[in-house]
Specification:
Chain lengths: ~325, ~325
């Protein structure tokens, strides 16, 4: 169990992610977000519970649904929001957008929008750690859909045979876009696939941040001590559709309601109150703080300029002169 | 100076860079102790540097490149080998969507210093899945460099530049070139990217060729010389970046261009070079641009058919002769 200040921090982070995603949704409705969005709301316990075990120099790879991973790994809200809004002040200077946020200064190795592509990359980060002889670890976040990609098999097998310090965290939100897990695999638990690679597979309630924290703690410790990778499956649910205004009509109402009752933030808050770790007044203060942080970040992003069009020509290669001779 | 094969030259580059920089490591299928790579390029390196730095991988091409990318963005300089060029198709996501785009889509935050070595080329009767030349795929992917050495000197110098650089390099080798010999200096040297080499000077016609085709072009030039045609042979050495200046300058001098390339003709290397010259030196041309490339087929197995599709010394000679017939007479 983390200490009280850490628990409070985890609670604040979960709220921050939730408010951040609600804000992105609102901004999207106001036509201020170019392209599409894949919101992390509902899955906060997974990113926060896992990342609470990490050091700044540990690595994380992320997905198209990655805002929560960024925030949980310690990326700045303002530069994250600015990137989502396509502004010059964003993490990627407006070149990446919602699906490609990275902050290498906090070990956030970037979000890939190719489902499953981050798995071998995280394995590579693990190999790099091993070859450099440090005690860092790499976390690889991906979804249930990614577990049907070849990269899942290739990447996890490699990490297993080379005993690399990687924890593979499958955020199983039951649907790959609109395709229910039961339509595309015959097993209930994706973590069962770990047996095929000779590594531990752990199923955890992904809407219980303390359960996630504990499972991740064991996996992270094992990885850091040279024990090799773990496949950890967090059963969770997204509050909204896959992207943009997807109304997610493919999800039965009963199912949605059932998961709403299991909302990770409400549960964690109730638990903190019950355990006497936090008071109602502190809840209010924390909510306000999280809201303020998101509001400030949003203000920064909205006030930021868009990139100059010709900046599109930069950053293809390290050396400008080599791109066109 | 010493005489070595391209295989030796590549191995020397790998060995010296591994000695020079601890972050350089190799991974690929059967590159380690038993095989030393399907073409023997990495032979002896596992014994010298250990299995950790000369890493045998399972048959997982996409993960091999993905691992190289993940290692590259976290401080290492991986050199990945894909056993045959055709098999890069299995890793195109990691090569083209990840390695090539990571610097750009993350706004220049990170470099991806990795090298992907692989052999292209037909001529050894191993049919459609082990013979194709796919340079154009990767030229068409911004963010990658594409190198195409034809001599031991260029192979070693370009590989060193590739390993020391900050961006992913698609390093093309050619199966038939591994045993080809040439001289290289004893001391350390590199060959810069984007600088073509004039392999033979001439004044009547420019031939642009790379990889094994350089050698066929040089043989054709020798034959044409006896007929009184002076051929200039330009080897771009890197297709990305492409040294347009040297090519255009040569065409301005000779007024005639033949582009020879072992990839298929449609949207191929030869198409790009012909288009550049058409855009930048059309007024200097005394005859239409000729392209000698493979027909748009997969590579067939049976030797008679395989030899039919590969550009030959004779087809290059014919293409040049055609430029001097009828109204194109000098």
């Amino acid at each position: 169990m983390p200490d009280n200040s850490k628990l409070l921090d985890m609670y604040r982070q979960m709220l921050t992610i939730r408010f951040f995603e609600e804000t992105v949704f609102e901004l999207y409705g106001q036509n201020l977000v170019p392209g599409t969005i894949h919101l992390y709301a509902g899955e906060e316990a997974a990113a926060v519970g896992v990342c609470a075990n990490l050091r700044k120099d540990d690595y994380v790879t992320s997905t198209h649904r990655g805002h929560g991973h960024c925030i949980a790994k310690g990326a700045r809200l303002d530069k994250t929001m600015a990137e989502i809004l396509g502004r010059k002040t964003g993490y990627c200077k407006g070149k990446g957008g919602s699906m490609h946020i990275a902050d290498f200064s906090v070990g956030m190795l970037g979000a890939t929008a190719v489902v499953g592509a981050g798995i071998p990359i995280a394995t590579g980060a693990g190999l790099s750690i091993k070859l450099r002889g440090t005690d860092q670890i790499a976390i690889c976040f991906f979804g249930d859909g990614a577990s049907n990609q070849g990269t899942f098999h290739e990447g996890i097998n490699l990490a297993a045979i080379w005993h690399l310090p990687v924890v593979f965290v499958c955020e199983n939100n039951l649907y790959a876009m609109g395709t229910r897990q039961t339509r595309v695999m015959l097993i209930d638990n994706i973590a069962d696939r770990a047996a095929g690679y000779g590594i531990p597979g752990v199923v955890v309630d992904g809407n219980d941040v303390l359960a996630v924290y504990e499972a991740a703690r064991v996996a992270v410790e094992r990885a850091r001590q040279g024990g090799g990778p773990t496949l950890m499956e967090c059963k969770t649910y997204r509050l909204r559709g896959h992207s943009r205004f997807d109304p997610a009509a493919y999800r039965p109402k009963d199912e949605v309601n059932e998961w709403l009752r299991k909302d990770a933030i409400a549960r964690f808050q109730a638990k903190l109150l019950e355990m006497g770790i936090i008071t109602e007044a502190e809840v209010q203060r924390t909510v306000e703080k999280a809201r303020n942080d998101v509001e400030e970040a949003t203000k920064f992003a909205l006030e930021s300029p868009f990139p100059e069009p010709a900046e599109a020509l930069e950053d293809v290669y390290a050396a400008k002169e080599s791109t066109s001779k | 100076m010493k005489e070595v094969t391209i295989r030796d030259a590549l191995r020397e580059a790998l060995r010296e860079e591994m000695q020079r920089d601890e972050s350089v490591f190799l991974l690929g299928e059967d590159i380690g102790r038993y095989w030393g790579g399907a073409f023997g390029v990495t032979k002896g390196l596992a014994e010298e540097f250990g299995d950790e730095r000369v890493r045998d991988a399972p048959i997982s091409e996409n993960a091999i490149i993905g691992v190289a990318v993940g290692a590259a963005i976290t401080g290492m300089r991986p050199v990945a080998e894909i056993m045959f060029g055709d098999l890069t198709a299995l890793a195109v996501d990691q090569i083209c969507n990840q390695a090539a785009k990571i610097r750009y889509m993350f706004g220049g935050q990170v470099s991806v210093p990795c090298v992907i070595r692989t052999p292209f080329g037909a001529g050894v009767n191993i049919a459609s899945h082990h013979s194709q030349s796919l340079e154009a795929w990767f030229m068409h992917t911004p963010g990658l460099y594409v190198t195409v050495p034809s001599t031991p000197y260029d192979a070693k110098g370009l590989l060193k530049t590739a390993i020391r650089g900050s961006d992913p390099v698609f390093f093309v080798e050619h199966k038939l070139l591994y045993p080809i010999k040439g001289t290289i200096p004893d001391e350390d040297y590199t060959v810069p990217f984007g600088v073509a080499d004039v392999k033979r000077e001439g004044k009547d016609v420019t031939i642009v060729a790379s990889l094994y085709m350089v050698h066929k072009a040089l043989a054709a030039a020798e034959q044409l010389n006896k007929e009184g045609v002076s051929v200039e042979v330009i080897d771009p050495r890197t297709l990305v970046p492409l040294d347009k200046t040297t090519i255009v300058k040569s065409v301005r001098k000779t007024g005639r261009l033949v582009v020879v390339s072992e990839d298929c003709k449609t949207a191929g290397v030869s198409a790009e070079i012909a288009a550049i010259v058409a855009e930048e030196a059309l007024d200097y041309l005394d005859a239409p641009i000729k392209r000698v490339a493979e027909p748009d087929t997969p590579i067939p197995f049976s030797p008679s058919m395989e030899q039919f599709v590969i550009p030959s010394e004779n087809s290059i000679v014919q293409a040049v002769r055609a430029l001097f017939q009828g109204r194109n007479q000098p």
